[in-house]
Every structure is written in C-alpha cells, then in structure tokens.
C-alpha cells in the first residue's frame, strides 16, 4: 500500500493495523530542523503504526452517528542543536495520539475544540500519511531544544569546589589575626 496516497476512510473501516518506516530524508520540513553538525551517519528512521477504528454513538431521537478515528504511534529521534551549548544532540520524538477523521473542512471546523480525546484531521481517499507523520513530529519538537546536561557544562557543585577564595575574605583573615 502506498502511504503517500491511500483511501483513509476504507483503511479505517477495514480495521486492520498498518506499520512501516519513514526516513528523515522523506520529510523535508523536519529535515530542515536537524542540526547542521549532526553526525554524518545519522540516518534517522521513524517507525510508525496506524490503527483505524469506527465508533457508533447514540444521539437523542436520531440514527446512531459514526465517528472515525486513527491511532498513530511514531518512534524515532532527530539531531537538534542545543540552545545552551550550540552542539548537536539526539532528541527522541515519540508520538502517540488519536486523531478523529472528518469528511470535510466544514465538518472539521464544526468539531468542538475542547475535545481532549482526539485532535481533528480531514480525511481523504488520497490521504498522505507521511505528511501527517511529519506534521505530528514537527509539533512534538521542543520549543527550546537543550541537552538534559550539556557535555561541557559545569555543575553548581563543581563550580563551588573550583571557586578561589574571595580577596576580601583573605583581608578579613588578616584583620582578625592581629
């Protein structure tokens, strides 16, 4: 199956899971975020899984309404530039989310914004899953990328140990000796 152009509605109704991998080079917007000094062998690959589900919901005095969802999981990492030390570091980008699939832009616009269960996307019979994965990975990027602890960073305890005595403390010692 070509996951750059497939019938998302048919996929959801079939209820079969799908999985695969996508390389960073296949996602140009995410590739542009990669640190310039990333290791040359950093051939980032993202593993993904997709599962569709249909939920029937009862409505007062009407026919049950069908809601379409996909559960998307993506695992992988990209090399980003640390904003503290300006060196490249590997940033894991795990994505686990449920997306409610609408049939049109108008339907998506009418969806409640306060639904914590799922984000809303517009489905298609020519759906591009790789672009959707790239969108979700871009949203998962940290606002200010940083190492947990920069390689050259001096920890506060080490800084205290390295401190030289204050010249004023030396003068104070001289004063008390008389």
Anisotropy-based shape: elongated
| Global Rg | 26 Å
In percent, how much strand structure appears in the residues?
25-35%
Q: Unreliable segments (pLDDT under 50, ≥5 consecutive)?
A: none
> With helices defined by DSSP (H or I, 4 residues minimum), what is the helix count?
6
> By helix and strand content, what is the structural category?
alpha+beta
- The count of β-strands is 7
Which sequence of SSEs, written as H and E, runs from N to C? HEHEEEEEHEHHH
Main beta sheet strand tally, sense and closure: 5 strands, mixed
Would you give an account of this structure?
- The chain is an alpha+beta fold and 178 residues long.
- It has one domain (8-153).
- Helices cover 26% and strands 32% of the residues.
- It has six helices and seven strands.
- The strands form two sheets. It has a five-stranded mixed β-sheet.
- Strand 2 (45-59) and strand 3 form a beta hairpin.
- The longest helix is centred in the C-terminal third of the chain and has 12 residues, at 129-140.
- The mean pLDDT is 87.
């Amino acid at each position: 199956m070509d996951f750059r152009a497939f019938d998302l509605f048919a996929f959801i109704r079939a209820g079969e899971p799908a999985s695969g991998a996508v390389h960073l080079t296949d996602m140009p917007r995410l590739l542009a975020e990669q640190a310039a000094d990333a290791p040359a062998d950093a051939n980032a690959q993202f593993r993904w899984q997709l599962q569709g589900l249909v939920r029937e919901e009862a409505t007062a005095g009407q026919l049950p309404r069908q809601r379409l969802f996909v559960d998307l999981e993506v695992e992988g990492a990209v090399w980003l530039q640390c904003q503290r030390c300006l060196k490249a570091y590997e940033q894991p980008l795990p994505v686990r989310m449920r997306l409610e699939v609408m049939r049109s832009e108008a339907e998506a616009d009418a969806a409640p914004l306060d639904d914590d269960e799922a984000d809303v996307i517009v489905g298609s019979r020519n759906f591009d899953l790789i672009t959707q994965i790239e969108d979700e990975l871009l949203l998962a990027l940290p606002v200010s990328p940083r190492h947990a602890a920069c390689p050259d960073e001096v920890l506060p305890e080490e800084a205290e140990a390295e401190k030289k005595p204050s010249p004023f403390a030396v003068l104070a010692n001289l004063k008390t000796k008389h």
